[in-house]
Amino acid sequence: MSLKRFTAQGFRCLDSIEFEPDAEYTLIHGANASGKTSLLEALAYLGRGKSFRGAPPANLIQHGQQEFVLFGQVERGGRPINVGVRNSRAGLEVKVDGDKSGGVAALAGALPLQVIDPDVHNLVSGGPDERRRFLDWLAFHVEPDYLGLWRRFRRALKQRNAALKSAGRPESVVAWDKEFCDLGARVDAVRSQVVEAALETLQAQGSALLRANIDFRYTSGWSRDRTLREALQDHFERDCVLGTTQVGPHRADLRLIYDERQARRFVSRGQQKLLASAMILAATERVQTVLQQPLLLLLDDPAAELDRESLRRLMTQVAGLGSQVIATSVERDESLFPAAPRVFHVEQGDLRVSADT
Ligand SMILES: Nc1ncnc2c1ncn2[C@@H]1O[C@H](COP(=O)(O)OP(=O)(O)OP(=O)(O)O)[C@@H](O)[C@H]1O
Ligand SMILES: [Mg+2]
Fold first, then answer.
1. Using CA atoms, how far apart are residues 273 and 122, in angstroms rounded to an integer?
2. Of the ligands numbered here, which is closest to the C-alpha atom of 38?
3. Which residue owns the Cα nearest ligand 1 atom 12?
4. Which residue's alpha carbon is nearest to atom 8 within ligand 1?
5. Mean pLDDT over residues 6-30, rounded?
């Protein structure tokens, strides 16, 4: 997979830009507030239908405009795919090769990508939600049935929680248990297989970046020695009191072990960034192996929080993946890459190919 051409209109400070990234390395440099992160955010939006900064769509539409429009020409296995997104106050419109029916999942299928930005450490230091999203991204790309399964499980969970909240009759709660348990056990099985298959890669990326023993432990979201049904029964009264389901795949986590300790409590901010980056690079590597395609990897200010040696290690691992890499930096630092990148300069939301490339 390779993004050949990208255009954005009315996205944050990007008035109207057109951009042809290199198949391997692209560097976007510019002063603070010139629009570097906005450009990566727009690129990521095209493959995700949402902002990696967690911004609501209304904040992404350029001040004074009614909508933003993004378009990308992707080449996948020698075949061109046209991907478009329009977001106005009326909502999100997605088009993949003219088809509007696929929604955000169609974007993710057409332009699979990962992002390493200065907030990436949250994947390690934050709560389990982001790590579950990480697992689900991996599962979505390597297991074709996963998305449907996950959606059905979410629906069963919502219905069960609604029944718990409406209180009163335990029968209306228990009515959802079979579906919840069947689907929950299948979601868990896929996640567990996905972690198992990625474990060696995760460990290898972790120790390459941190020069330490890194391990990962997947936890299902309920006690290992109980089936999901038994765990649900054990928690029934508490669920009724709290009005939500306390156990299940919606409580899963991927725990990180750094030299035999819980990483999120004992590592520095720079180490958290390296650990989180290791997870992202390992997931990218796994998905590339399964899809037999390079992915798009967006690096926003990779030097942030890292000393020279850590940055060198990170960029060595990045280069080893063979992904299409687009990185930003404040200074024009081409030494980030092992080969000459295509260089762009961004100034007040306007993008230019740098003069001497
Ligand atoms: N909806 C919007 N409409 C117009 N401008 C916006 C909008 N949202 C953000 N901006 C502006 O876009 C500019 C560029 O922000 P961006 O985060 O892309 O900069 P950057 O080049 O990544 O800077 P830094 O080096 O500090 O990370 C900022 O001045 C910001 O105020
Ligand atoms: Mg920025």
1. 8
2. 1
3. 13
4. 12
5. 97
Q: What is the pLDDT of residues 234-283, one digit of tens each?
A: 999 999 999 999 999 999 999 999 987 777 777 899 999 999 999 999 99
How far does the centroid of ligand 1 lie from the alpha carbon of residue 59, in Å? 11
Superfamily of domain 1-112+294-357: P-loop containing nucleotide triphosphate hydrolases (3.40.50.300)
Residue whose CA lies nearest to ligand 1 atom number 18: 35
Ligand 1 atom nearest to 64, measured from its CA: 3
Can you read off the two tokens belonging to residue 40? Answer: 């990566």
Q: Find out whether the beta carbon of 64 lies less than 6 Å from any atom of ligand 1.
A: no
Cβ of 66 below 6 Å from ligand 1: no
Distance 323 CA to ligand 2 centre (A): 22
Atom of ligand 1 nearest to the CA of 328: 22
CB 323 within 8 A of CB 284: yes
For the whole model, what pTM was predicted? 0.96
Query: Which residue's CA is minimally distant from atom 29 of ligand 1?
Result: 33
Is 343 in contact with 354 (CB distance < 8 Å)? yes
Find all residues with CB under 8 Å of 102, minimum gap 6, and list them: 94, 96, 109
By percentage, how much of the chain surpasses pLDDT 90? 91
pLDDT digits (tens, 9 = 90+) for 292-313: 999 999 999 999 999 999 999 9
Q: Is the CB of 161 under 6 A from ligand 1?
A: no
Domains 1-112+294-357 and 120-292 share a fold: no
pLDDT in tens, 105-156: 999 999 999 999 999 999 999 999 999 999 999 999 999 999 999 999 999 9
Q: Which fold has domain 120-292?
A: Glutathione S-transferase Yfyf (Class Pi); Chain A, domain 2 (1.20.1050)
- Between 27 and 78, name the one with better pLDDT: 27
> Can you tell me whether residue 340 is helix, strand or coil?
coil
Calpha distance 22→5 (Å, rounded): 9
Token code pair at residue 321: 């993946």
Atom of ligand 1 nearest to the CA of 13: 5
Tokens of 264: 């999120």
Domain-wise residue ranges, the chain: 1-112+294-357, 120-292
Q: Is 30 in the pocket of ligand 1 (CB under 6 A)?
A: yes
